[in-house]
Amino acid sequence: xxxxxxxxxxxxxxxxxxxxxxxxxxxxxxxxxxxxxxxxxxxxxxxxxxxxxxxxxxxxxxxxxxxxxxxxxxxxxxxxxxxxxxxxxxxxxxxxxxxxxxxxxxxxxxxxxxxxxxxxxxxxxxxxxxxxxxxxxxxxxxxxxxxxxxxxxx
Length: 154
Prior knowledge:
With 154 residues, the protein is mainly α. It has helices spanning 2-10, 23-43, 45-54, 62-85, 97-111, 120-129, 133-138, 148-151. The mean pLDDT is 86.
């Protein structure tokens, strides 16, 4: 979040402003971003590997189950916020940092086989966002160093 705010503030002449000018709207964007950001730590690969290595008695698929549990828990909170704030985008009808946070989180949710039907508002927004050329260009599958196995993910 800090680096994105730094870029937003350091390059004020960008054609797209990712933080709204009104403080109330900026607060909503930050709330969505922080809620999504809280999910990320709990599905971090290194954290999941560490948990698995410390828990020999747990089933082999513990990483997936833990990731699914925490992603779903977090997405329920995000879904609640988006039901209040969303318009065409995560917060009203202007593209924001919240949209930049949502797309990679949904990608990870799909990577861990989370049932996205449980999150209709999140899914609807993500489906629209990934059609925007900048989001498609930034998708993991379109990066030159993306492993082939990752290119197969939706």
